[in-house]
Amino acid sequence: MKTNLQKTVARGDGGFTLIELLVVVAIIGIISAAAVTNMQSALDKSRQRKTLANMRNLSTAISAYNTDYSELPGNGLTASELEDLLEGNVFNTVDATDAWGYDLAYSSNAGSYTVESYARDGADGPANITPATKTDFDNDMVLVDGRFLNSPEI
Q1: Which of 14, 75, 95, 146 has its CA 20 to 30 A from that of 1?
Q2: What phi-psi label fits residue 38: left (phi over 0), alpha (psi between -120 and 50 degrees) or beta?
């Protein structure tokens, strides 16, 4: 005949202890934190690539405008003014925003133009991308006359 103590021990053999459950939850938390960090970095990298593509397309549209009208679009145009001016020329649509949702900065002076993305932080600077800082997504990307002076691809 089994005593009450033996019955309790026999029923508890099939479950997990609280410590085992806490260890599993902690491991899942650590793995999740690493996955979220990697996912955010991958999203920022894709936004960076999309921004570079938008800047190239905008540069091509500016060059086409320059070819058609023998002048660059005026200095100090906002992104929406620049889009309106360039659309309907060679391109049906032009996107003058970066992938983070900020307007690209455009300026022109004496036959030269600059397109700049202020990147993830949306603030001007820093504009020095090196191989060591190309995954710092707050660094500005700068395109001058169709060539990148500052981008993660340099």
Answers
A1: 14
A2: alpha
